[in-house]
Amino acid sequence: MTQVSASTDSATVPVGVLPPDLGQTSPAVIKASQRVTPESTDEVRHITLEVMDPAFQYVEGQSIGVVVPGPHDFGNAYHLRRYSIANARSVPVGSGVNLDILVRRCFYVDEISGERYPGVASNFLCDAKPGQQITLTGPYLSPFRMPLDSRANILMIGTGTGIAPFRAFAQHIYERRGDWKGQVRLYYGGHSGLDLMYTNDEHTDLANYYDEKTFKAFRALGSRPLMTSSQALEQGLHDHAAEAWRLIKDTNTHVFISGLSKAAKVFCKVMAEQAGSEEAWLKVKEQMIEDSRWSELIYD
User: Fold this and answer.
1) pLDDT grade, residue 177 (50/70/90)?
2) Which of 54, 185, 194, 236 is the most exposed place for a label (fewest CB within 10 A)?
3) Residue 100 and residue 33: Cα distance in Å, rounded?
4) Does the keyword section mention tRNA-binding (predicted)?
5) To which H or E segment does residue 93 belong?
6) CATH class of the domain defined by 153-298
């Protein structure tokens, strides 16, 4: 399917033109847009939005939709793309509510023509300037639910921009609550330093939580040029499999997987090795699902 880059001249969809299938919409303003990757690599931006409605509410793990006004290919009046919210719920400031999203400027190759096209929403957002107004939908329900028990262990596994909801989790646990007693582990894989932008000392605020007694982040960087982020994650999980398995066996551990769909397959593969067989692992996993301690937020 062919897509073209969106114009940023018209940032908000005019009132009265919004298709009814969009559901509830909210106007928002780009407050800040910071590139978090070097100029020599793919562009990824940390974008702060202010929703112009103090009644707008969300919780960690939810996502919002960004509406890119058309016209687009095939006569579409708008293009909608969802992004995970990357910060903990915030108190309204002034007349609005702030939220963060992580956006990678994407391109794809048409399978038939072989031509490269820019992703509509990602290029729209990466080109947007502070002060520009845009239209949001949501927030949307999420399979991620933070446990209420502060003694619960949290095991987070992610690749790519799938780290966004985990940033919100860490903020909520250590900044907003401050009394978390359970063990918190983040396993994160990337095929290059680009994919570790939120887990290294140079570009991230996740480093703020490294000194917490309960928090540990295990970063895996691809050791070969063609190694994918999922392969790097598998490498990192193998290196720390015993730690993950120890937590899995604790009945008060909650698992959250975010990012590429291969991340879940990789995690299950490594845990099956720790369990002794795939059959034994599936029994453990099924019990966690039954206990509402297993959540996935994945994409292809």
Assistant:
1) confident
2) 54
3) 10
4) no
5) none
6) alpha beta
Task: Give the end-to-end CA distance of the chain in Å, rounded to a whole number.
Answer: 16
86-89: Cβ within 8 A, 24+ apart: 86/46, 86/164, 86/165, 86/167, 86/168, 87/167, 87/168, 87/171, 88/60, 88/168, 88/169, 88/171, 88/172, 88/175, 88/176, 89/57, 89/58, 89/59, 89/60, 89/172, 89/176
Rounded-to-integer distance, Cα 174 and Cα 17, Å: 43
DSSP state letters, 198-263 = TSSTTT-SGGGGTTSTTEEEEEEE-SSTT--HHHHHHHHHHHTHHHHHHHHTSTTEEEEEEEETHH
- Domain 25-139 and domain 153-298, same fold? Reply is no
* Per-residue pLDDT tens over the stretch 194-241: 444 444 433 445 555 545 667 777 665 444 444 566 777 777 788 889
224, two tokens:
């070969």
Residue appearing with tokens 């646990």: 173
The answer to whether 200 and 221 are in contact (CB under 8 A) is: no
Mean of pLDDT values over 54-77: 84
Q: pTM of the predicted model, to two decimals? A: 0.66
**Cβ pair 140, 63 in contact under 8 A:** yes
Contacts of 203 (CB under 8 A, 6+ apart): 36, 37, 197
Residue 20 confidence (pLDDT):
58
Separation between Cα atoms, residue 235 and residue 272, nearest integer Å: 15
Q: Cα separation of 263 and 279, whole Å?
A: 19
Length of the chain: 300
Which class does domain 25-139 fall in? mainly beta
Q: What is the DSSP string of 102-135?
A: EEE--EEE-TTT--EEE-HHHHHHHH--TT-EEE
